[in-house]
Design a protein that fits this description.
Blueprint (H helix, E strand, L loop, with lengths): L2 H12 L1 H4 L11 E2 L5 H10 L7 E10 L4 H7 L4 E10 L4 E10 L11 E3 L8 H12 L2 E3 L27 E2 L2 E2 L2
Parallel strand pairs: 1-4, 5-6
Antiparallel strand pairs: 2-3, 3-4, 7-8
């Protein structure tokens, strides 16, 4: 089964408003999933006997603050963050990438973190990956059982992998740069 066939299964079940009219074509193609439907789509990808995506290889956040010329030419571009999910079906020997795109700030309010549903109830390992994306990229995962920092101290200010992050000059009396 290839990405077009997987997309056809998702399209039949969820419709174009959830998974788009077709997969996104690139060196490593993906299917874009709407944030509000991510948990349902993930559960379906995991449980449907035709798919059985039982393994989450990786989940990461990407910040697109400035226009990326290559990406903009192919997909259009507005500043946003993406959550990228790399999935594997061990049973069917399939791999799939899905992406959720959300505005950099919730409701357009600077400082209000964007929200994506947690998939830790589908793939347990997502618990750690989502905490890392929260800590470093500033993406909240609604429904996460323990969403707190995993690499930075709890009192750290900001999210260090955001493109507009400003490294503090001092932290607890220790000089930075």
């Amino acid at each position: 089964m290839n990405i077009d066939q997987i997309h056809a299964v998702l399209l039949e079940r969820f419709g174009q408003s959830v998974v788009g009219p077709e997969p996104k074509r690139a060196i490593d193609p993906w299917i874009e999933v709407q944030a509000e439907s991510l948990l349902q789509v993930s559960r379906f990808l995991h449980d449907d006997p035709r798919l059985l995506f039982d393994h989450l290889n990786d989940l990461c956040g990407v910040d697109y603050l400035e226009p990326d010329a290559k990406k903009a030419a192919k997909f259009g571009h507005e500043p946003h963050v993406e959550v990228v999910y790399h999935l594997t079906s061990m049973t069917h020997r399939l791999q799939l990438k899905i992406k959720v795109l959300v505005p950099r700030w919730k409701d357009g309010v600077a400082g209000q973190l964007p929200v994506v549903p947690s998939v830790s109830s589908v793939w347990g390992i997502a618990n750690w990956h989502e905490r890392e994306a929260y800590d470093l990229m500033g993406i909240e995962f609604s429904g996460h059982p323990n969403l707190r920092r995993i690499l930075c101290p709890e009192d750290w200010s900001g999210h260090a992998l955001r493109k507009d992050y400003e490294f503090p000059l001092e932290y607890h009396g220790v000089r930075g740069r």
